[in-house]
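Support request, please re-run this one:
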Amino acid sequence: MAAKKKKVKKPTSLSHGRPPIFLKPAASLSSKATRTLIRSHHNLHKAHAKAVSDGDSAQAEALLAQIEQQGGLKSYQQASITGQSSKRGGDSSKVLMKWLNSLSASQISAQGGSGRTKLRLLEVGALSKSNACSRSNLFTVTGIDLNSQDKSILQQDFMKRPLPISEDDKFDIISLSLVLNYVPEAAGRGDMLRRICQFLSPKPKLEGDENILPSLFLVLPAPCVTNSRYLHEKKLIEIMNSLGFSIVHKKLSAKLAYSLWRYSPLEQKSEKEFKKIEVSPGKSRNNFAIILR
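Re-run finished. Output below.
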């Protein structure tokens, strides 16, 4: 009698956000193992998305099996949490806090709204409520994730979040930390950036250098900006400018590209389209791109 074929379990869709927090990882991964697992997981999911788009069901099933063989979603969750732990220095919100710490209480009230003592922050792809932003007294934080396992983080797809109907539904800052790169298709990344604009409420300009709200905190793997065939810093700035964003702060580390963008649509917003066009040729470059349509 032939052996019964084991049914491959399909992992949860992760099209527009990161996997949820894995509460009890079995063991701590080394830095190298963490990076390898995360990179492999991203590549497999991108390949799977392409196979589905091409209608290649056999290839899609094979890629799902590979993902499962590598530990599936739980294994990726463990690596993601480990990589962003304080022991690894991976809390990207520390950079945001450093950029915002110079804001005074009067400036917060002026930019955040009359009578408010805290800024409203939407964290898309939230992993936990123990990061620097959540622990600070600067924000009222709303955390969302596609597959939340923390009761303090709302399980929600940002691309399906109801559009604001009043200023109370909008935010002073939106955080996309290692989220945009997880969206598998370039056009989907552009759609996400366009949608971000609808959740930010423009504020009156202030005198001085602290005129930074509302804003988007964007964190990408450094190679997305420094080693892509289709995107470099200049093109990213052009894309963001066309949506009404202007860069306020930026930081490039060996692994990550951090940036803070002020939103002011009346100044620069346009309907310009950005296609997937090669800007930096090279065999060793990656294919990360952002398409605006």
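DSSP finds ten helices and seven strands in the chain. Strands lie at 119-124, 139-145, 154-155, 173-177, 215-221, 245-252, 256-263.
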